């Protein structure tokens, strides 16, 4: 089955939640011609996720890797979103780590932002800071979403990790790549954590 027909057919089935039928179409595509494309896998993973079948989405990712097809950033993000919809934040972060460490996928800034946002939701400040450092080491450019999520993750953890995030933010601002100033506002003091949010960037 050609990619266009596959995508159209799956789109027509969006309200049916017929996971078995979609998987059958994918398997048929794998057996014919050049096989299934990353876009077909991404479509299938997204279909599973939107239907609440996060386990099915992860099965498709596993199958893709087992068949020697490297998941791209879209497939990874769709898999993470499938878990996020089901509030399986640890599983979503597992997808990120599998993609990075096992599947050898090329991760972009959007995928890193998704992972850092998940850290914020699950109050994993140190993990968020670690991903921010990793992102910088990979030569990816953090944006307002990145830093906002890091600060939210650090403050949500009830500790002092936000100081580390602010230090990294300062280093990124002065790195010479893009001369940006951050507009920061302080929130209320809650326990030992000062809630700080990045509300915008001013380019100079």
TrEMBL record:
Organism: Ectocarpus siliculosus (Brown alga)
Gene3D superfamilies per UniProt: Tetratricopeptide repeat domain (1.25.40.10)
Transmembrane residue ranges: 180-203
Protein name: Pentacotripeptide-repeat region of PRORP domain-containing protein
InterPro entries named in the record: PPR_rpt (IPR002885), TPR-like_helical_dom_sf (IPR011990)
Alphabetic keyword roster: Membrane, Repeat, Transmembrane, Transmembrane helix
Ranges occupied by PPR repeats: 37-71, 108-142
């Amino acid at each position: 089955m050609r990619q266009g027909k596959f995508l159209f057919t799956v789109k027509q089935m969006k309200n049916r939640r017929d996971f078995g039928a979609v998987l059958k179409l994918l398997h048929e595509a794998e057996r014919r011609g050049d096989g299934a494309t990353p876009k077909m896998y991404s479509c299938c993973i997204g279909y599973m996720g939107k239907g609440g079948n996060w386990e099915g989405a992860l099965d498709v990712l596993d199958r893709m890797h087992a068949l020697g097809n490297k998941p791209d950033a879209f497939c990874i993000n769709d898999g993470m979103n499938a878990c996020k919809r089901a509030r399986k934040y640890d599983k979503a972060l597992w997808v990120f780590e599998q993609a990075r460490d096992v599947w050898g996928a090329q991760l972009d800034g959007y995928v890193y932002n998704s992972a850092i946002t998940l850290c914020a939701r699950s109050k994993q400040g140190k993990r968020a800071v670690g991903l921010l450092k990793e992102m910088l080491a990979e030569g990816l450019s953090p944006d307002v979403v990145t830093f906002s999520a890091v600060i939210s993750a650090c403050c949500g953890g009830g500790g002092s990790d936000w100081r580390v995030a602010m230090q990294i933010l300062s280093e990124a601002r002065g790195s010479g790549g893009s001369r940006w100033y951050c507009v920061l506002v302080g929130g209320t003091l809650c326990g030992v954590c000062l809630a700080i949010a990045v509300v915008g960037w001013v380019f100079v």
